[in-house]
Amino acid sequence: QVQLVESGGGLVQPGNSLRLSCTVSGSIFRFNTMGWYRQPPGKQREFVALISTDNNTNYADYVKGRFTISRDNAKSTAYLQMNSLKSEDTAVYYCSTRGHWGRGTLVTVSE
Questions:
Q1: pLDDT of the residue at 26
Q2: CA nearest neighbour of 55 among 71, 36, 77, 35
Q3: 33-87 pLDDT per residue, tens
Q4: Paired residues of 110 in beta bridges
Q5: What are the φ and ψ backbone dihedral angles of 102, each rounded to 5 degrees?
Q6: DSSP character at residue 36
Q7: Alpha carbon distance 58, 71 (integer Å)
Q8: CB 80 within 8 A of CB 48
Q9: What is the per-residue DSSP string for 80-94?
Q10: Which residues contact 62 (CB under 8 A, 6 or more apart)?
Q11: What pLDDT does 89 receive?
């Protein structure tokens, strides 16, 4: 059974950084693209970033240049380094692969 567990969320002031982690159980991690998504309060879930098995990356325009996605196949873990955080980055952040989703981790950017 595939399980995804996100961690690393929290409360942070604008301009600061956080790193999210997503650990995947099972053996599918290294063979699949990983994605990060987020759901801001009162809004629909939206795409943030993805990384392919050969480390090609793609970012939403609103995080490009501030967020970096990476992966460690040996640890079956994907990361999302978030720098220069803004209040509009406040959301529940989810990771996903092959239709499987984690439960999310809350990021709150506020003074």
A1: 80
A2: 71
A3: 999 999 999 999 999 999 999 999 999 999 999 999 999 999 999 999 999 999 9
A4: none
A5: -85, 180
A6: E
A7: 13
A8: yes
A9: EEE-S--GGG-EEEE
A10: 88
A11: 98
